[in-house]
Amino acid sequence: MPRILITRTGLITAAGAGVDPVLAAMAAGRSYVPTAAEARQRRSPWPIVTLDPADTPWPAGKLWDNAKKYANTAAFGAVAAAVQAMAGADPVEGATAIASGVVMAVGCSGSDELNEAMGKIAVSAQTDPRPLPKLLYDEVPDFSYIRGIPSQIGQFVAIATGFRGSNVAVYGEGGAAGLGALAQASRLLRSGELDRVIVVGVAPPLSTTMLVAYDREDRLGTSAAPGAGPFDAGRGGTFPGQAAVALLLERDDAAPVFGADASPVELVACETRCTPARPEAISAAAGAALSRHGAVPDVWWAHGSGSVGLDAEECAVLGPLAAGAHVTASKGTVGNAFECGGLIDVALAAESLRRGRTPPVGLLVKPDPDLGDLEFVVGGPRAAASARTALVTSVSHGVKASTAGAAVLWGGAL
Amino acid sequence: MSTDPDTDGGTRMSELDDDEIVITGMGVVTPIGASVADFWEANLRGRSGLRFEDRMDLSQLPCGWVAGIIPDDLKDAVRERSGTGPGGAERSWGDTLMHDALDQALADAAVTAPPARAAALVWARVWPGPSGSFPQDYAPHLRAQAERYQAAGTDPVANAEYLADRALPPELTDVSEFQAEVAAKLGAPVLGTRLEATCSGGLRAVAEAARLLRLGDADIAIVTASVSRSTPYVLSQYGQLMALSRWKGEDPAQASTPFDARRSGMVINESAGAVIVERASHARARGVERFHAAIGGWGLAVGTGHVTAPDVTEVERVIRTAIDRSGLTPDDIDTVNAHGTSTKLNDVTEAGALRRVFGDRLAEIDVCAVKSLTGHGSAASGVVETVAAALTLTHDIVPPVATTTEPDPKCGVKTSLTPVERPVRTVLKSSFGFGGQYASMVFTKAAPAASA
C-alpha cells in the first residue's frame, strides 16, 4: 500500500496566511475571537472570527476576470488557499495533470450573499404584479445560482492548479468538518486512481439564519475571553470562524512533483463514522483510524469546540486512547470553521510535528476537572521533540450531527 | 416481454468472482413510478411523467413550463411508507424521498441483519434551500422574508433577535441527521459521505461506493440521491441560464426529446434513487443468490474550459477510461444509457464523444435516454439511471426513447420508439454536470474478464 504524504499546505485564517501565524498566535496566547464588546461593535450576534477579504485575493488575468462573475466568497477563499499551497510549483500538464485531482470540503449553508437583494425582492413581491417566477427571473442577480454550486468552486481550484483528474465536493458540515473530504482524497490515492489530490476546505461567512440554526443545534459562545476556550471549566459554546485551507496529498510511489516540503508528514489514516449517538461515532472513527496505525498518539489535536457537552463527550471517549499525549486545539484561537476545521487542524498538526512543539489551547486557562486527567497544553508551548504520531479529531456540529472523523499523522522517518 | 424484475430478474451470484462489485438492491421514486417494477414498465411502454407545471405561474418565463412531477397519489404513498408527515417523522421532502428509495433497495437486497462492520453510505441531496421543496412553499417563505426584512433590515443582530423564537424550515440545517437515521435503520455505524449534488453526482456516488468496497473499507455500500426543487426561485434561475425546455405544444411529454432535432432544453424533475452495492463474496455469504448488475470500471474528469458547457474531449476521456478500466474495448459495449438531457449542446456533445469512441459502430448501438420520460433529476438521475442500466442487463431489453420521433442527424445516435430486445452484456452510462464534472461507468452482466 502506498504511503500518502502531505507535501504542501495553504491556510488562510484571521491570523493571516499560512500555518506559521496560527502557531505563533497559539504559542503567544493570542486569540482572534472577538470579545463580546467587539462583537457588539461589529453588529455581530455572536463573537465570530472573520477574514479580511484582502486575505483571499482573486488571481489576475483575463481568464480569472471572466470567471469572477461565477465566484462567491467561498470560491475566493478556496482559490486563495490553493494558490498559496501551490506557490512556486511548476504548472502541470499531460499525464501528470490527469493523475491529479481536487476534493472540496464545502457547506451548503454558506454565506447568504443574496440576503440584501432577496430582502428587497421579497418586499417588492408583496405588491409587484409580476408572477413570482418572472419577478425572480428579472430581479435576482445573474449567475447567483451557479455561484452556490460546490463543484463550481472545485473547478476554479482545478483551473488554479491545473489538476484535471477529477473534482468532487464533500459536504463538510455533515462530514466531520472536512475530514470526510480528506478520507475521500485518501481513497482516491490508495486505490491508485490518482497520484495526487489537493483537498480544499472553506468556511465562508455564515448567514444569520444559519448562525441561529447552529445555535439551536448546540449553543454558540457568547463571550470570548481567557477562560472561555475549549476544555476550560468556563467554556460556554463554540465560536464560529471563517477560514480556507488546502492540503496537497501525494502518493510516495508517484513522482512527488510538488514535494516542496523537505520533510513531509504521512497521512496514515483518515476515517469518519456516523452513529445515532455521537460518543459512539467518535469512538468508532478514532478506533478505525488508530487501528490502521497501531501506535498510540503522542499529540492529540482535539476537535475542542468549546461546547460544554461535546468537549465532555470527546474527552470521555478519547481520553483513554490519548493517555499521556499532549492535548491541544485550535478553535480558541481561530474559531470553529465548521466545514473545514478538521483540515485546518491536520495542517497545524503536521507542522507542529515537524517542529517538535505542541502549542497551547487558545483561551484555555483552567482545564475542566470533569474532563479527566488529560495533558492539556496550557499557557505556552510544550516541547515534543520525540513526538511522532498525532491524532486529529473532528465532530460535526450539533447534537443531531453524530458524525465524527479522525486522522492519524506520522512525522517520523518515512 | 417481461417487466417484473422480482420474478425473473437478476443474474446468478454463483457466476461471479468473489471480488466482483455487484448491485444487489434497487429502489426508485420518480414521476413515472415509485417502485422499480412500475418504473421499468413505464420505461418500456414509453409512459411519460412530464406535465405542465401548473402549481405556479411560469407563463412569463422564457422556458421551463414543463416538469417531471411525482403524482400526488404516489407522494402520499411514499410519505406513508416512509413514516413521514403528521404523526411521523419530521423530514424534508428530499429526505423522505431518499428514505423511501433506500427502504426499497434494502428490501430488494434482503438486508435484514445489521452489517458486521460499518456500512458505506454515499449520498447526494439536491438542497432546495430554506425556501422549501414545493412551489406552494415559496410564497409563504418570501412573505416571511419580507416581514423579516422590513422588521430587521440587514442588520445581523436585529435578524438574530427576529429569528430567535421563530421556527426554521427543516431544509435549512444540513448536518448529518440523515446519516444518523440510516445508521439507526441498519443497526450499524455508517461510513458516510455526502457528495455534492450536481448532475454527475449520482453516478460519481456509485463510483465512490465501488471504490470503498474495492479498498476493503466496507463490505456493503448504500448509494442514494434525491432532488425536489421545483420552486419559483429555481425555475427563475434555470430560466436565466436558458437551460430549460421551450416546448410549447399540447403534449407536455414532448418537452424532453434527447437526441431529437426538436430538442430545446431539459426538464427538471423530483425523484430519488438508491442502490445497494457489495462484493459478490459478501452477498453470497449472506445468502443472496442474484444480482442486478456488476460494476466494471469508471472514468471521472474535471474540465476547465467552461462552467456549464460540456467538452467533447472530456466526455470522450471518461468514456474511454471507464471502458478501459473495465478490461473491455469499445467493441464490447452493447448499449449506452446516455446522460441525454435534451439540451442542444449536451446531446450533440455527448453524441460526438460516442462517435469518437465507437466510430461507425455508433449507428448500430442502441442508446436509451431515461430523461425523455422522467425529466432531469440532477444528482438523483445518475442513481435512477443506474437502476435502468441494471434492468437493461437483467432483462436484455433496451428501453425506447419514446419522445425522439425526429432523431437529429447531427447527433447520429440510434434510438428506438419501441423496446429493443437483444442480448445485453454491457451498458455504458454517463453523467455530466456544471463545474466541469464528467463521469462514465460500465455495468456488466458478468465478470468483465469473462466478457472481455
How does this structure look, described?
The complex is a heterodimer of chains A (414) and B (452). Chain A is an alpha/beta fold and 414 residues long. Chain A has two domains: 4-254, Peroxisomal Thiolase, Chain A, domain 1; 265-410, Thiolase/Chalcone synthase (Peroxisomal Thiolase, Chain A, domain 1, 3-Layer(aba) Sandwich). Helix content of chain A is 35%, strand content 19%. Chain A has 15 helices and 14 strands. In chain A, the strands form two sheets. In chain A, strands 1, 2, 3, 4, 5, 6, 7, 8, 9, 11, 13 and 14 form a twelve-stranded mixed sheet that branches. Chain A has a two-stranded antiparallel ribbon with strand order 10-12. In chain A, a hairpin with a 2-residue loop joins strand 1 (4-13) and strand 2. In chain A, helix 4 (73-85) packs parallel to helix 9 (150-161) and helix 12 runs parallel beside helix 13 (308-318). The longest helix of chain A is centred in the last third of the chain and has 16 residues, at 278-293. The model of chain A has no long low-confidence stretch (mean pLDDT 92). Chain B has 452 residues and is of the alpha/beta class. Chain B has one domain: 3-Layer(aba) Sandwich (Peroxisomal Thiolase, Chain A, domain 1), CATH 3.40.47. Chain B contains 15 helices and 16 strands. Chain B has a ten-stranded mixed sheet. In chain B, strands 1-9 form a two-stranded antiparallel sheet. In chain B, strands 3-4 form a two-stranded antiparallel sheet. Chain B is globular, with a radius of gyration of 21 Å. Chain B starts with a helix and ends with a helix. At the A-B interface, strand 3, helix 6, helix 7, helix 8 and helix 9 of A face helix 5, helix 6, helix 7, strand 6 and helix 8 of B. Chain A: Pfam families: ketoacyl-synt. Chain A: This is Beta-ketoacyl-[acyl-carrier-protein] synthase family protein. Chain A: Residues 82-254 form the Beta-ketoacyl synthase-like N-terminal domain. Chain A: Keywords: Transferase. Chain B: It holds the Pfam family ketoacyl-synt. Chain B: InterPro entries: Beta-ketoacyl_synthase, Ketoacyl_synth_C, Ketoacyl_synth_N, PKS_Beta-ketoAc_synthase_dom, Thiolase-like.
